[in-house]
Write a structure and sequence with these properties.
single chain, 296 residues, alpha/beta, Rossmann fold, two-stranded parallel sheet, 9 helices
Length: 296
C-alpha cells in the first residue's frame, strides 16, 4: 500500500514509518510547511499530490494544558484540520484512518468505555478532538475508521516513559499520580494496528469496518503503577530508576482536567478488524531496551 500520513515527528507517525516500511508499504509522512492542519487548502493539496491508497490522519494539536489558552488553534488543527484531511480522502476516494483520543470522555465511568458510550470532554483538547471526529464522520464517514487511543508511549518524541527515565537520572524519588487509570499503549503497536485497519479498508468495502473503534494495549494501570514498571524494566538493564511516591490528582494540579478513567473497551476492533494489541508490559520492556541501548 501507498499510505500518506499527516505529520512528521509525532510518536504514531514515526512508528508508522518504521513499521510500515518494514512491512513493505510505502509510507509518506507529510507535515509543515507542505501540510499545515491550520491551513485546510494546504492539506488537500499535499494529500492529493501524494496519490495514496489510504490516508492516516495522525497529526494533531496535543498540548493538553496549553489548549486551555489556545483554544482557537486547537480547534483549527484538531477540528477543521481533521475535516480537511477527510475532505481530501473523499476527493481522492480513498479510505481514511483518523487517530483520536480517550479525552473525548469525561473519565467518570467505573468501567472501560465502549464506542457507544456518551462523550463528554472536560477540556479544550478533548472537545477539539471530538470536533475532529464529527468532521470526519460528516465528510467521509462512509469510508473512514476513527481509532481512539490512550496513554501513548514509544522510543520516539516526548512521552511519560522518557520523562520518568529522565527524572530518575538525577533523583531518588519521583512523585506520580495514582488515582488515574488507563491502558498504557505503545505507538509501535498502534502503528501495527493502523496498518491492519488500513489494509482492511482498502481491500473490503464492508460498512462494518468503518466507524469508531477503540484500540489500546491489553492490561491496565495507574500512572504510579506504570512508573514502577518503567523503573523495574530500566533497573534490570542497568538504566536509571527511582522510588515512586504515590500522590493524588489534587496534589498535582494542571490547567486541564485529566480523566480519572481512561480505560477503553477494545472488543469491537478485535471482532471486526481482527486487531488486538499485546499486553503493555511486553511492549514496555522492548521500548525500555531500545532507549537504554540508544543512550549507551
Amino acid at each position: 500500500m501507498r499510505i500518506a500520513v499527516t505529520g512528521q515527528a509525532g510518536q504514531v507517525v514515526t512508528s508508522l514509518v518504521e513499521r510500515g516500511n518494514a512491512a513493505g508499504h510505502v509510507v509518506i509522512a507529510i507535515g509543515r510547511p507542505e501540510l499545515d492542519l491550520a491551513d485546510p487548502a494546504s492539506v488537500v493539496r499535499a494529500l492529493e499530490a501524494a496519490a495514496p491508497d489510504a490516508i492516516v490522519s495522525a497529526a494533531a494539536y496535543t498540548a493538553v494544558d496549553k489548549a486551555e489558552t489556545e483554544s482557537e488553534l486547537a480547534y483549527a488543527v484538531n477540528g477543521a484540520g481533521a475535516g480537511a484531511v477527510a475532505q481530501a480522502a473523499s476527493a481522492l476516494d480513498v479510505p481514511l484512518v483518523h487517530v483520536s483520543t480517550d479525552y473525548v470522555f469525561d473519565g467518570l465511568a467505573g468501567r472501560p468505555y465502549g464506542e457507544s458510550d456518551p462523550t463528554g470532554p472536560t477540556g479544550v483538547y478533548g472537545a477539539s478532538k471530538l470536533a475532529g471526529e464529527q468532521a470526519v464522520l460528516a465528510t467521509h464517514g462512509n469510508n473512514s475508521a476513527i481509532v481512539r487511543v490512550a496513554w501513548v508511549y514509544s522510543p520516539f518524541g516526548a512521552n511519560f516513559v522518557k520523562t520518568m527515565l529522565r527524572l530518575a537520572a538525577d533523583r531518588d524519588e519521583v512523585s506520580v499520580v495514582a488515582d488515574q487509570v488507563g491502558n498504557p499503549t505503545c505507538a509501535l503497536d498502534i502503528a501495527d494496528g493502523i496498518l491492519s485497519i488500513a489494509s482492511n479498508l482498502v481491500c473490503d468495502s464492508n460498512p462494518a469496518l468503518r466507524g469508531v473503534f477503540h484500540m489500546t494495549a491489553q492490561g491496565e494501570a495507574n500512572w504510579a503503577d506504570f512508573a514502577e514498571a518503567i523503573f523495574a524494566a530500566s533497573a534490570k538493564r542497568g538504566g536509571p530508576w527511582a522510588s515512586v511516591r504515590r500522590i493524588g490528582t489534587a496534589d498535582y494540579p494542571t490547567p486541564a482536567t485529566r480523566p480519572a478513567n481512561s480505560r477503553l473497551d477494545c472488543g469491537l476492533i478485535a471482532r471486526v478488524h481482527g486487531v488486538a494489541l499485546q499486553n503493555w508490559h511486553g511492549s514496555l520492556d522492548l521500548v525500555i531496551a531500545r532507549l537504554i541501548t540508544a543512550a549507551n
